Amino acid sequence: MFYFWPTLRARDVRHPAFTSIFIVNFLLGWLLIPWVIALAWAYRHKKIVEPSPDEYVKCPDCRELVKADANICKHCRCKLVPQ
Ligand SMILES: [Zn+2]
């Protein structure tokens, strides 16, 4: 399982280059240096945290998502009423 660490990490963070990382990991990983590259590649992508509907509301002015308890929109600086 340790051998597929880069692939598992890429899968966990839903890396956009998951297939490429898997191929490098699977075919070239035994060469060690490509394995280290695949691991670093997998860790370059931060896990995407999907905003939950409870925490975010749409700004009435610019329609961007802002935190529900925000006083000012971070995108357009308009005043908001915290919910
Ligand atoms: Zn706004």
Could you explain the architecture of this structure?
This protein has 83 residues and is mostly helical. It folds into two domains: 2-44, no CATH class; 50-83, no CATH class. The protein is built from three helices and two strands, in the order αααββ. It has helices at residues 5-12, 18-28, 33-44, and strands spanning 56-58, 65-67. The longest helix has 12 residues, at 33-44. The radius of gyration is 20 Å and the shape is rod-shaped. It starts with a helix and ends in a 16-residue tail after the last strand. 17% of the residues are buried. The chain binds zinc ion.
Summarize the SSE layout with pairings.
Layout: H1 5-12, H2 18-28, H3 33-44, E1 56-58, E2 65-67
Antiparallel strand pairs: 1-2
The structure holds zinc ion.
Residues 59, 61-62, 64, 73, 75-76, 78 line the site of zinc ion.
